[in-house]
Amino acid sequence: MKRRSLILSLFLLTSCADLYTGRSYLTEMESDDSRFFNPRDDFPVVGGDSGRFWNTEEETRARTPASLGDIAEENRKRSLRQELRELESSQSEDELYQKYQHKFGTVSERIYFLELPPRERRDYLASRGFLEEEKVEMTSERERAFAVRGQDILLGMSKNEVVESWGKPLRIEIAGNPTYENERWLYRVKNGQKFIYFEGGQVQGWE
């Protein structure tokens, strides 16, 4: 009985093998029809999904918990931006700041400038080389002579003309190399004091 069962089993296995004639590993691999699932084709896309297969670096960073260093740096930047907004809102209209703020590369530089006393801001701009781009409207020699007689000051006046008009200053402050003649002269006037600013030895402004 056992012998018959063994013969029958071998016969059935041989018969089944005939059904798979010509099949090999390579054939099976080539006929593989498996594929990746695609959004919308194989599953619905819910609200908030982009339907893309990948994320940008910015998206990955947004989903990645920030390190303690990143958190501290972001808090520092946020604090500086808040400080700058408060300084700007508390300032009166400052033509120098409005004109040159785009020159400052960082928020910290803007804060530093706004924390300077108004009388020192022009010196700071001159030390950075920003004022060199200003074009002074030159006055004629006749206009300057008339201003000297009237003890007035005009843009473009030389230092000698200012001395002729107002006399010698109480104090002279020099910015940078003296040969560039970037100076600030202090005068005592009825209402307090007045500063006259020179660049290249010519009057560029006053306050």
TrEMBL record:
<protein>
    <recommendedName>
        <fullName>Lipoprotein</fullName>
    </recommendedName>
</protein>
